[in-house]
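Hi P.,

Sorry for the delay on this. The queue was packed all week, but I finally got your sequence through. Input first:
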Amino acid sequence: MSSFPGRARASAGAPGVRVPGQKKGILPPHDSDVSGREDPLPDRKLKTNQPGSPKRLAGQVAVVAGSTRGAGRGIARALGEAGATVYCTGRSVTGNPSPYRRPETIDETADMINVAGGTAIPVRVDHTVEAEVEAFFRRVDREHGRLDVLVNSIAGEEPMMGQWGSFWKANLKNADAIFRQALVSHIITAKHAAPLMIRARRGLIVEVTENDILAAGGNPMSQVVKLALKGLALNMAAELEPHGVAAIAITPGFLRSEAMLQHQGVSEANWRDAGKKDGNFLESESPLFVGRAVAALAQDPKILDRSGQLLSSWELSRDYKFTDYDGRRPDWGKLAIDFSVLPPSLMDLFRTGTRLQLEWLTTVERRTREFLAKIPKTSARRARPSSPGTRAKPKGRARR
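Then the structure:
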C-alpha cells in the first residue's frame, strides 16, 4: 500500500512519471523558471525564536548525507542554524550534477548555511561506494575528532522510484540500482559513522523516510526502501543503546521540496497558489521544518528515550514548539485530508491496506510482548559471574 501520492517525496515530479489520476502535461520542463534553483526560503534572516536559540549545537559536528536538495538540504540548514558544523555530502557539485538532472548542488546548500552565519563544508561523496564513505569519515575524524549527528537523507527523491502501480505490473529494470542507491547507501554510511559515536559514547543517527505508519511508496521497490529505513533505525537503536548512541527514523509532512514546487508549477514565494488545485497543499511544510525537528532532537539530553522510534516533523513541533521559517506550525497529522483528489481505486487500496496493517501490527505486538516476557531480565553471564581467580570451564559439544 502506498502513502498519499507525492506527500513526502516528489519522485512523481520526475519526467515521464505520473501519479494515478494526474493529467498529462502538468509537469514543466526542468529548465523552466520554477526549476527550484532559487533559495526556497526567501527570508535569509531565519527566525530565531526556535528551541535551542542561541546556537546550542555550537562545537558539534553533523554530517547530512544527501543534503543536495529537499529534506536533506533543510536539515543541513537547520543544524547550521543551531550552531553545528555541517558536512554537506552528495553527488551533485558545481559543474558535475548527479544523474537526477536537477540544478541543485551541495555547494549551494553549504553556501546557504555559510551566508546565514553558520559553518558548512561541502564534500562530494557517492554513498553507494564504501571506499569513498570510509575515506570521508576518516577525514571528519582527522579534522574534528568527533561526530555528533549523522542524517541519512540519501536518494529520498530518487527518480527511479517514481513509478506507480501494482507489483505485478512493476518495471524491475532498475530494481537492483534502486536498492543500492536508496537503501544500501544508508547502511554503508551508518556503518562508518557509528564507530566515531560509539568511541565518544554519544551521538544521533537519523534515517529520513516517508510516512509515519508502515506504508509508503507507490511501487514494490519504493515500498521496500521506505519500510526498511524505518526498520533500520529500529535495529540500529537496539545495538547502539549500550553505547549511549540513539537512532531514529523521521518523516516530513507534505514537503515543499524543489521538485515538489516544480511539480505544482509554483515557487516558494507563491506556493499557496497550488492550494487552489489541492487544498492539502496548504498544510505543506518547507524543508527547514523537518530540519528544525532534527535540530531539536540533537539538542535533547533525553534523546535516548526516543531511540528506535518513527517520528514526524509535526509531532515533534508540538513537543519542542519550533516553527517553520514563516512562523507557521503545519500539522499534517491533524489535517482532515481531502481524499477527493485521488481516484476511487486508490482510496479502496488505502482503506484495505490500512486495515490489514492494523491487524498485522496488533498480532505482532501480542507476539512481541510474549517473547519479551520469556527473555531473562539479566543475562546468565551477569547473573552468575565467575569467582575471582577462576575461569569457567567451556562446555563441550554433546556427543550423539
